[in-house]
């Protein structure tokens, strides 16, 4: 019995020891679980700390990156490259002006001798009523108008008017085509295409000078290319330089246009034949085309399309300027990236409120200004002194008007200083209605001298307004649609030049002084300055405001959706982890129950 008891005791002891072992095993499992949880928490904290550190380093690195403006400053924004392009642009403006202003001589009409009983305003109408109008010509210019028999005057005046209108329409159509090419395909390719077409058109009018259709097509094609090229290089000047240098060089381009008018007069003096004048225009344009392959699209424009292309051009400019280069990672990305495949067009000017009023008003301003400008060119043979002398004095006035802008461009408000000269020249044009040329007035009488003097003064203020308004309109549009905006305004403006020949003919037929009519429409143009926004002292826009806001909202929505997806995935991961912990807790609870019931646990049995 004792042995049994002993065995019983021994057995009891053994049985008592088993729950102690189970208890110890359970405690060990709990410690392992807690240890794993601590390790997991430490690992998560470490990963979070590493992520925060990486984010802080990325933020600090991003903060140290340059803006595209800083990058342009590094490679040089007013150095050799910009100066060379300014000189080329000046050349484009000079000989572009000779093409654009060529109708002054290519469509020059003869001066007339009328009896003393016929007033000067009605002289042309009286001559045309005579059986042989050529008997009353006091001059016989070798112009396109006089190259045919009978000349394109009087009963055939409508052909000349249509031809002039078609020429100026060439410029207008050029603007429409160029604005799509320049802002979507590139400023460089646009300049190449249109400057070459300017030369081709001049050659056509030279070779086929005695064919009305071919000649007019050549005139129109030359203007189609010249005016478009002028607009594009003006936009390039605005986008590849900075600060006061940008403002000075943009203002300094305008005088080249005035000099072009003087060069055209010199051509007419050397050779009055219109075909040779067009040849003199074509040859220098052809020679200058060599430089077209040695300049680049402006970096500020490219940056809005493709950052890598902008960096490549910046480094090419740096090489020319002997300045430090920039690396891709040194330049910050755009905060809001518009799709580079987006096609900008005229609809954008009217779709977005920030562009709509500026586009409409700037177009109407140039419309009325160009009625006065080109209308005064076409009337030069009918007022004042000799046509060539009138053209020379007005060209000098144009140059002086443009030059007057240069020293003050960095100090003047665009809207106010465009408005005031408009008032002055409008009043001068209206005053022409009070000047009566006596019937016995000779070629150099005081009244004719006064007319030449007044039209010269008026042209000074007219070109001052036009030159400053051109800069103003260029600055008012964002980089991505600058050529489109300026092109649209110029297109509407050139409708004014197309309309000018018909407008003058109508005024003459009604016995109204043409300059009086131009003065009235010039005053009308001033109304459209009021709704426009001032650009002086305001940073230039890179992109359309509303488009940037739309893209920002879309990106925020996309980030919000990505955040929701990430949160959902994280919750699923946490749920899975929670399920595993519950399983471990269940096992621990089972072991505790088995231990308290003195039943061997699975671990103990093993």
From TrEMBL:
Domain of life: Eukaryota
Membrane-traversing stretches: 83-102, 158-182, 189-210, 216-236, 248-270, 276-296, 357-375, 395-412, 419-437, 457-474, 486-508, 514-532
Membrane topology: Multi-pass membrane protein
Bias (Low complexity): 34-48
Compositionally biased spans, kind Basic and acidic residues: 554-583
Region (Disordered): 1-60, 554-584
Record-linked InterPro entries: MFS_sugar_transport-like, MFS_trans_sf
Any one GO CC term of the record: membrane
Keywords annotated in UniProt: Membrane, Transmembrane, Transmembrane helix
Localisation: Membrane
Entry's Gene Ontology molecular function annotations: transmembrane transporter activity
Protein name: MFS transporter
Species whose genome carries this gene: Tetrahymena thermophila (strain SB210)
């Amino acid at each position: 019995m004792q042995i049994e008891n002993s065995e019983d005791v021994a057995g009891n002891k053994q049985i008592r020891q088993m729950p102690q072992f189970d208890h110890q095993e359970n405690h060990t499992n709990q410690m392992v679980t807690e240890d794993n949880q601590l390790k997991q928490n430490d690992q998560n904290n470490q990963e979070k700390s590493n992520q925060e550190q990486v984010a802080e380093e990325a933020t600090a690195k991003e903060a140290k990156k340059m803006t595209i403006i800083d990058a342009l400053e590094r490679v040089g924004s007013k150095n050799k490259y910009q100066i060379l392009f300014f000189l080329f642009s000046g050349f484009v403006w000079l000989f572009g002006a000779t093409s654009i202003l060529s109708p002054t001589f290519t469509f020059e009409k003869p001066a007339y001798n009328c009896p003393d009983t016929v007033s000067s305003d009605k002289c042309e109408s009286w001559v045309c009523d005579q059986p042989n109008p050529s008997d009353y010509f006091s001059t016989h210019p070798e112009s396109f108008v006089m190259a045919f028999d009978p000349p394109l005057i009087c009963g055939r005046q409508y052909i000349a008017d249509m031809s002039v209108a078609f020429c100026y329409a060439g410029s207008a159509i050029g603007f429409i085509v160029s604005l799509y090419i320049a802002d979507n395909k590139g400023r460089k390719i646009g300049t190449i295409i249109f400057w070459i077409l300017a030369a081709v058109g001049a050659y056509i009018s030279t070779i086929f000078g005695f064919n009305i259709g071919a000649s007019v097509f050549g005139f129109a094609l030359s203007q189609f290319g010249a005016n478009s090229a002028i607009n594009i290089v003006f936009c390039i000047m605005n986008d590849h330089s900075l600060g006061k240098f940008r403002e000075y060089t943009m203002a300094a381009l305008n005088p080249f246009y005035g000099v072009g008018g003087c060069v055209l007069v010199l051509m007419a003096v050397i050779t009055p034949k219109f075909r040779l004048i067009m040849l003199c225009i074509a040859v220098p344009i052809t020679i200058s085309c060599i430089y077209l392959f040695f300049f680049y699209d402006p970096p500020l424009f490219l940056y809005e399309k493709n950052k890598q292309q902008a960096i490549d051009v910046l480094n090419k400019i740096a090489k020319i300027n002997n300045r430090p280069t920039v690396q891709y990672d040194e330049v910050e990305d755009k905060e809001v990236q518009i799709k580079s495949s987006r096609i900008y067009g005229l609809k954008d000017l009217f779709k977005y409120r920030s562009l709509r009023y500026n586009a409409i008003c700037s177009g109407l301003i140039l419309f009325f200004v160009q009625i006065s400008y080109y209308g005064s060119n076409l009337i030069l043979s009918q007022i004042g002194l000799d046509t060539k002398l009138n053209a020379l004095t007005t060209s000098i006035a144009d140059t002086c008007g443009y030059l007057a802008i240069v020293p003050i461009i960095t100090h003047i408000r665009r809207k106010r200083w465009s408005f005031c000269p408009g008032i002055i020249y409008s009043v001068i044009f209206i005053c022409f209605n009070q000047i009566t040329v006596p019937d016995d007035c000779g070629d150099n009488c005081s009244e004719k001298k006064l007319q030449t003097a007044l039209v010269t003064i008026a042209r000074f203020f007219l070109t001052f307004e036009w030159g400053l308004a051109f800069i103003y309109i260029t600055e008012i549009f964002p980089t991505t649609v600058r050529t489109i905006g300026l092109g649209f305004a110029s297109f509407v403006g050139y409708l004014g030049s197309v309309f000018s020949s018909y407008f003058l003919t109508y005024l003459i037929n009604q016995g109204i002084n043409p300059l009086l009519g131009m003065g009235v429409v010039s005053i009308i143009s001033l109304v459209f300055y009021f709704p426009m926004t001032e650009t002086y002292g305001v940073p230039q826009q890179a992109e359309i405001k509303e488009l940037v806001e739309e893209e920002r909202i879309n990106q925020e929505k996309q980030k919000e959706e990505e955040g929701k997806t990430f949160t959902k995935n994280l919750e699923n991961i946490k749920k899975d982890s929670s399920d595993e912990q519950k399983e471990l807790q269940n096992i621990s609870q089972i072991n505790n129950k088995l231990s308290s019931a003195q039943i061997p646990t699975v671990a103990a049995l093993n």
